[in-house]
Amino acid sequence: MSHYSKLENRLNYTFENKQLIIEALTHKSYKKPYNNERLEFLGDAVLDLIVGEYLFTKFEKSDEGILSKIRASLVNERGFTMIARAINLGEYIYISAAEENNNGRDKPSLLSNAFEAVIGAIYLEAGLEKARQISIALIEECHPKIDLDSLSKDFKTALQELTQATHGITPTYELLDSSGPDHKKEFVIAVTLDGKTIAKAKGRSKKDAQQKAAQIALKELKK
Amino acid sequence: MSHYSKLENRLNYTFENKQLIIEALTHKSYKKPYNNERLEFLGDAVLDLIVGEYLFTKFEKSDEGILSKIRASLVNERGFTMIARAINLGEYIYISAAEENNNGRDKPSLLSNAFEAVIGAIYLEAGLEKARQISIALIEECHPKIDLDSLSKDFKTALQELTQATHGITPTYELLDSSGPDHKKEFVIAVTLDGKTIAKAKGRSKKDAQQKAAQIALKELKK
């Protein structure tokens, strides 16, 4: 049994051309005459179309602004790393010893790129329908609730992405107060950025208060 | 014969579902319960994949950085507007009277979006292969020489895109000098941005000198 047979089982797809899966799993650090970057280029476009069409069909009434937003929340390094981890892709990739010591098998960029490359390889060998079937199954497994609300409500993630892009730092959340009886507790959370409080909010749970504070912070920062 | 039959002939594709082509041709200004924005969202991803795969296959030895660069030079508003004009798409789009008076039928954004929507509609009805066949024929017709050299050599366009993005202005080219006998003329061109010279170059023709100056300017601005 080859090294990657278990991966093929998990994907529910067996490559005819084994060179394709080997290439998809080969990180450039491995110093072979090939690596997975070209397949990643292809897979990226395949996934963009597959997810775009999936949303186009699922949300018949949503305009293209909403569709783009939801797609961006699924088709990104974080989303693909999640899928790569779910299929243990890190176990199967070929990387250099140096990359290995550098925790390469668990690096988001490496995992996400390898996932795109694997989908690119399936597309090349078996076509769009097969690639669609496999990637939609994995996306639905990792995002059990793809809907407008749950995707657009993740304000903490949106805030983190914004502050990392604009300030190069991650916001922190601080519990300022909790009060009330157990069945009706209230939490007050502050979001701070680089030591400065940018928003506060109350909520029924810490998570709820954090999301609300992140939402207010997002508005503030976008002003 | 319907309004858009000539367009169907030009595309070499006849829609079964006429509502699809009507939707693809309807600009949002036309105030119908539908418009071409959702199809444009889909067509954009379809074209990204089609052109990506075309380049992946055509340039077997090129790494993904080069492929991305060439794709970006083909898949953009300018490129799609060129194709839209070649098929006279502006004649067939449905726009409001106000947009009509505003020269809407010749607006790059409107033409480019309508082209993407038409490809999205063909993809939906007839699948990826048909969409590929039609769009590659049009792309090859409008870009007779898709190769690394001729695409990457268009430094003037790259410079203009950069300065518009970063400074909101377009560079200008000035002939500083021309010398030598007719069969061996030499031209000196300066690129200026907002009145300030950012690069100079010599060339065998004005066009050649402009390209060289643009290339130097690009390097300067990217520093």
TrEMBL record, chains A, B:
<feature type="domain" description="DRBM">
    <location>
        <begin position="154"/>
        <end position="223"/>
    </location>
</feature>
<dbReference type="Pfam" id="PF00035">
    <property type="entry name" value="dsrm"/>
</dbReference>
<dbReference type="InterPro" id="IPR014720">
    <property type="entry name" value="dsRBD_dom"/>
</dbReference>
<keyword id="KW-0479">Metal-binding</keyword>
<dbReference type="GO" id="GO:0004525">
    <property type="term" value="F:ribonuclease III activity"/>
</dbReference>
<keyword id="KW-0540">Nuclease</keyword>
<keyword id="KW-0698">rRNA processing</keyword>
<dbReference type="InterPro" id="IPR000999">
    <property type="entry name" value="RNase_III_dom"/>
</dbReference>
<feature type="active site">
    <location>
        <position position="116"/>
    </location>
</feature>
<keyword id="KW-0819">tRNA processing</keyword>
<keyword id="KW-0694">RNA-binding</keyword>
<comment type="similarity">
    <text>Belongs to the ribonuclease III family.</text>
</comment>
<keyword id="KW-0963">Cytoplasm</keyword>
<feature type="domain" description="RNase III">
    <location>
        <begin position="4"/>
        <end position="127"/>
    </location>
</feature>
<dbReference type="Pfam" id="PF14622">
    <property type="entry name" value="Ribonucleas_3_3"/>
</dbReference>
<feature type="active site">
    <location>
        <position position="44"/>
    </location>
</feature>
<dbReference type="InterPro" id="IPR036389">
    <property type="entry name" value="RNase_III_sf"/>
</dbReference>
<keyword id="KW-0699">rRNA-binding</keyword>
<feature type="binding site">
    <location>
        <position position="40"/>
    </location>
    <ligand>
        <name>Mg(2+)</name>
    </ligand>
</feature>
<feature type="binding site">
    <location>
        <position position="113"/>
    </location>
    <ligand>
        <name>Mg(2+)</name>
    </ligand>
</feature>
<keyword id="KW-0378">Hydrolase</keyword>
<comment type="subunit">
    <text>Homodimer.</text>
</comment>
<comment type="function">
    <text>Digests double-stranded RNA. Involved in the processing of primary rRNA transcript to yield the immediate precursors to the large and small rRNAs (23S and 16S). Processes some mRNAs, and tRNAs when they are encoded in the rRNA operon. Processes pre-crRNA and tracrRNA of type II CRISPR loci if present in the organism.</text>
</comment>
<feature type="binding site">
    <location>
        <position position="116"/>
    </location>
    <ligand>
        <name>Mg(2+)</name>
    </ligand>
</feature>
<dbReference type="InterPro" id="IPR011907">
    <property type="entry name" value="RNase_III"/>
</dbReference>
<protein>
    <recommendedName>
        <fullName>Ribonuclease 3</fullName>
        <ecNumber>3.1.26.3</ecNumber>
    </recommendedName>
</protein>
<keyword id="KW-0255">Endonuclease</keyword>
<keyword id="KW-0460">Magnesium</keyword>
<keyword id="KW-0507">mRNA processing</keyword>
